[in-house]
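sorry for the late reply, my laptop died twice this morning and i had to redo everyting from scratch. anyway the thing you sent over, i finally got around to it. pasting the sequence first so we're on the same page, its 581 residues, then the predicted structure underneath. double check i copied it right bc i was rushing
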Amino acid sequence: MFFVKRIAIPLLASLLAIAPAFAAEWRLSGKVVDAEEGNGLKNVQVRLAGAGLVATTEKDGDWTIGATSVLGGVRSNRGASRNELRIRDGRLVLRLDGMDMSGRRIAVGEPRFGAPELSARSAAVAIDTLVYSKDGYIQKKVPVFEMVVASKIRDTIRRVRYDGWVDSSHANLKADTLNGFLRGPRTLVLRWSKQSWDAMMKAMADSCGAFGTKGAGGATSRLCSESQYDYIEKSAMIWVPADIEADGQVWKNVGVRLKGNWSLRSAWTSKDYALPFRINTDKFEDSLPETKNQRFYGFKKISLFNGVQDSTGIRGAVASSIFRQAGVAAPLSVPVRLVLKFGDTTKDVGVYEMLEIPDNPFLNRNFKNDSGNLYKPLSKLDQFVDSEWADEDIPGDRADAKDLIAVINATDRTTDSAAWHRALEAVLDVDGFLRWLATSTVIMNWDAYGTYAHNYYLFNDDGRFRWITYDFGYSFNYTMGSRTSIWYDERASSWSPQGPWPLIKNLLADRNYCEVYRAYAKQALEGPASVANFQSLVDKYGQWVAEGGSRSKAVQNLRGFMTTRTTEVQKSLDAKTCPIR
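ok and here's the structure:
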């Protein structure tokens, strides 16, 4: 709905630069913005419907209609366009040489004010209308005398949307973290057409074999491997449209694709429909303008992790809460129940982890900035390899990433530690990294930097990289990692199979940074990762997924993890002095 106000005629008259009575010069200007986001718009047509005068915004939604913007209109016997707007008797009057807006012939007279003109004999004719229009937007018509006016006219237009669109849940507004992630137990339904589902599955099958194919080495063989960190080729990950159904609402034609490495490969080779997915809510906005800037409660990019990595279904949610309580930049995570519908088929695939992808609104919420390069590297940070930083959204030579790696591995860190500190802290939020490393190590988040070169983002925040943790659903798990040392000093393959990890090694070899790490580990143990807080989070999210049977048993077993882990971490803290070499 659009809201307009009637204004006093003297205020309207101030908008028109009316020349003396025998002149025809005048000007009307304004700004048109997106009603949903408030941003200036380009290439919006603004017309005075009766006068036939047209303008198009060129930048930031600014437009002007005046004597020089006549693009058509009524032609007189003399062949010249004679359309004019004037103020007469307190209202806008449209003068037409030739015929009026109803097609009635008007005698042609001298070009002076008062000569043949359309006056107050018909208010509907005498008052002109501004019309705003743009491809993909609804037309808006506003009588000029009812415009909301400041120093110039400012008005809004809205996109044509589908039935069921609700601004508060679907539009690109400030993210609603409560309804988006934290409201409580919920079921999400992903619904594809049979054609879209078949296209997505065929792309995966073309790269990795038919659904259910185990390969020569069985389910654990590395099918369609692209690198030592990516088990699935990018060609297998195609986007297709699907609808999200949640909370009694529908988000239409969102982009959905398969995602993951081990989690995808394991489900695919086992012919398990509990596949992991990634969602981009406005992926198809270019071809489907009704989805432009569509959001799920303000969130654009979401990951849905299957239960391959977590029999409890709540490890990610608990880890995310602990990280955020510790002051670590960590995306929101909650358990959800997921149902897949494609064609006439319905598959209830059980509990998933719904995880926020670190883009907007995450960046603005955590750093008050979203304008820098955002990388998801596959790098140990020991040397720069372009393919490990490749991102189609970040063209160029990635000089900022090269500089970061050069500083991390600089030789002067041992000869002039003060200079190295200054250089490193200028390109990296070292404190933020150490805070993450300590908390991550305490909770045994082993599927991360320090064990594998993945599951982190680096955001260039005005020249200084910020460390962002991601995909922590393997936390509170003894599958990998040391139970006897938190100092990354053990050489056993079970701790660091893909090392070295220079960012960790070089920081812990520095006395000052090592002591900061120690302090953050103690803080984590005493606060966010304490037994009491950990168990309260397990109980909270355990209620979200309560269903009895094996899942409830797994949740109860998880409850005791930090009791044992606290003893291990405390013993290791007491056993070493900094620096660790």
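Residues 487 and 580 are 7 Å apart (CA to CA).
thats about all i looked at so far, will dig more tmrw
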